[in-house]
Design a protein that fits this description.
Elements: H1 2-23, H2 32-51, H3 55-66, H4 73-83, H5 87-109, H6 113-141
Bound molecules: heme C.
Heme C is lined by residues 19, 22-23, 26-28, 30, 32-33, 36-37, 39-40, 43, 65, 90, 93-94, 97, 127, 130-131, 134-135, 138-139, 142.
Length: 143
């Protein structure tokens, strides 16, 4: 199982480093781009915290992810409105990220190294699960 985690982490590291390079020009008014760039920064700092074994940092940032304010309320409502029937699933993805971030926070508070790695991988997976369905879709709604 650790082997899987290792691959996931290596992949994530690459994917995250690549992300900001694409960000220019993408800021499209959904209100989500800024939030997301904060999130990816947070993920990178968590990974750094794991590597230097600063589990306080890991716990604090995981908490920030769980309670991140997100886009302004009106932007958020406008998006959910446009997503219509899918708003529900979109919110479920947000909840899953929140739950995984809290699980990571708790693992880091103990700290349990293996659980920290596992929950970090789960958290990153839950980011991507939303992207698979909604990233392009949300972009297309704002162009
Ligand atoms: C509920 C759905 C959802 C979740 C969960 C989610 N994202 Fe996103 N993410 C989006 C959408 C939608 C966009 C595209 C926003 C736009 O272009 O307006 C996006 C875009 C991004 C971008 C690109 C931003 C840009 O401007 O190019 C990054 C980086 C990102 N997300 C990181 C993350 C990270 C890290 C997490 C998990 C901690 C996460 N996201 C969780 C929906 C989500």
């Amino acid at each position: 199982m650790l082997k899987n985690i290792k691959y996931t982490l290596a992949f994530l590291l690459l994917a995250m480093n690549a992300a900001p390079a694409h960000s220019e020009g993408v800021i499209s008014g959904s209100g989500y781009s800024e939030t997301m760039l904060d999130m990816v920064n947070n993920m990178q700092n968590i990974l750094f915290g794991i590597m230097v074994e600063d589990y306080n940092q890991v716990a604090n940032i995981a908490e920030d992810i769980a309670y991140h304010p997100g886009p302004a309320l009106e932007k958020r409502l406008a998006l959910l409105d446009k997503l219509e029937m899918e708003a529900m699933t979109f919110k479920l993805h947000e909840d899953r990220v929140r739950q995984n971030a809290l699980t990571l926070m708790k693992a880091a508070e103990r700290p349990n190294r293996v659980e920290v790695l596992e929950s970090f991988a789960d958290l990153a997976t839950s980011c991507t699960e939303c992207h698979i369905t909604y990233r392009e879709k949300v972009r297309s709604l704002h162009r």
